[in-house]
Design a protein that fits this description.
Elements: H1 3-8, H2 17-23, H3 26-32, H4 38-42, E1 46-47, E2 57-61, H5 63-66, E3 71-78, E4 82-87, E5 91-108, E6 142-149, E7 159-162, E8 166-172, E9 176-184, E10 192-194, E11 201-204, E12 211-217, E13 236-242, E14 247-248, E15 253-254, E16 256-259, E17 263-265, E18 267-274, E19 284-289, E20 299-303, E21 308-311, E22 315-321, E23 327-334, E24 345-346
Antiparallel strand pairs: 1-21, 2-3, 3-9, 4-8, 5-6, 5-7, 5-8, 5-9, 7-10, 11-12, 12-13, 13-23, 14-22, 15-24, 16-17, 18-21, 18-23, 19-20, 19-22
Length: about 375
């Protein structure tokens, strides 16, 4: 991990337990020091809510901070009437409302040296109307009205894709919380709107492994045509909803080496929100075990709303939703492969569970919701 990341990461993963307790107070300290010394093995990959904040972002994970090459995630919180401007730099981004709606204005940059992230509530360096046309054949940005949603548990949302080398401004009349999912890339694709009605909603697994996947930024499935995914250069992003008491991201799987046709090399970020119930804050658990590659990532984390887990390598899963508390997580992935594809390898000790799914029904609580029939704008 880089020194910069260590400054913002959860204290989980340091060898000095006394120092951890000093650095994290109250509940955070209790969560950072888990049983059996797993915290020391976690390597700082579990970011408790607030520990990864930076400037206008409630969470800011960049390749530099994570110590990897491609994947990024920012969580932006705007007050009513708030706005935020940023330069996309060398990355492509999807602006995804978690709660509330917004306007996204994107101007493709011609001067790649232009700088500037703007603070929330200020105009910043990327005001709409600046800049010029993009690469030949690439439209010069656009303005997109996102209806958004009340919460991640209330419905599928629309979203906006913005390319690298662009200036972006986000305005929210009523305020809200927005995920900026990003990936370093080479190609500059057109800025465009993603309708909620076009998001494929998938029910994956059965029985207590049942979960819902909103494939808003998925790559085309193996053997599928390009129309089955959302076009990006490297970015892959999906939402997963797990009913309380169920396990998802199961069987444990990995994608930390390039084996053409079998496995992709992808860094991954999990961002969590947990539904409260009966006045009680929700919680869940996330496991990552070493695969023998990379950093030997080993995490056993109690996760709550606003937490994130970084997965540079390793078998990840299960993601466990506590009974009575539905779990949401946003997955952001990118990697160095020549093809943008999501190919995984199941853990050899647990992959057999898939063979039991045809004999069980899908959890009747799913889907929690479906994509709307039309454009809500």
């Amino acid at each position: 991990m880089s020194a910069e990341f260590a400054d913002t990461a959860d204290v989980t993963g340091t060898a000095d337990m006394a120092g951890m307790a000093d650095a994290a107070d109250g509940a955070d300290a209790a969560r950072a020091v888990d049983a059996g010394g797993a915290a020391a093995a976690a390597g700082g990959f579990h970011l408790v809510a607030g520990r990864g904040a930076d400037g206008p972002y409630a969470l800011d994970v960049s390749p530099e901070k994570a110590g990897w090459g491609y994947s990024s995630l920012r969580i932006l919180e705007l007050p009513p009437g708030g706005h935020h401007a940023f330069a996309t730099g060398d990355s492509e981004w999807i602006v995804l409302p978690l709660s509330g709606g917004c306007t996204v204005d994107c101007t493709v940059r011609t001067d790649a040296s232009a700088d500037g992230d703007g603070d929330a509530g200020s105009g910043g360096a990327g005001d709409a109307g600046s800049g010029g046309a993009g690469d030949a054949g690439v439209p010069a940005g656009g303005t997109f009205q996102l209806a958004g949603r009340e919460s991640v548990f209330s419905g599928v949302t629309d979203f906006a894709y913005v390319p690298r080398d662009a200036q972006v401004r986000i305005d929210s009349r009523a305020g809200g919380r927005f995920a900026l999912t990003g990936a370093r890339c080479e190609r500059r694709l057109p800025a465009r709107y993603g309708a909620a009605s076009d998001v494929p909603v998938e029910l994956r697994g059965t029985g207590t492994c049942s979960r819902q996947v909103n494939n808003f930024g998925a790559a085309a499935p193996a053997g599928g045509d390009s129309g089955q995914g959302f076009a990006c250069d490297r970015l892959i992003a999906v939402e997963v909803l797990t009913p309380g008491g169920n396990w998802s991201s199961y069987p444990p799987h990995k994608h930390d080496e390039c084996r053409p046709g079998e496995e992709s090399e992808l860094e991954e970020i999990y961002y969590f929100e947990i539904a409260a119930a009966h006045g009680t804050e929700g919680l869940g658990y996330q496991r990552v075990t070493p695969s023998g590659r990379g950093r030997g990532t080993d995490v056993l984390a109690e996760v709550r709303t606003g937490d994130a887990v970084l997965i540079p390598d390793g078998w990840h899963g299960p993601s466990i939703a506590a009974p009575g508390h539905d779990m949401y997580y946003l997955n952001v992935m990118a990697g160095p492969g020549e093809k943008r594809e999501w190919l995984i390898c199941d853990h050899p000790d647990h992959g057999w569970i898939r063979a039991t799914w045809p004999q069980q029904p899908v959890d009747p609580r799913l889907p929690l919701y479906e994509a709307p029939a039309g454009d809500p704008r």
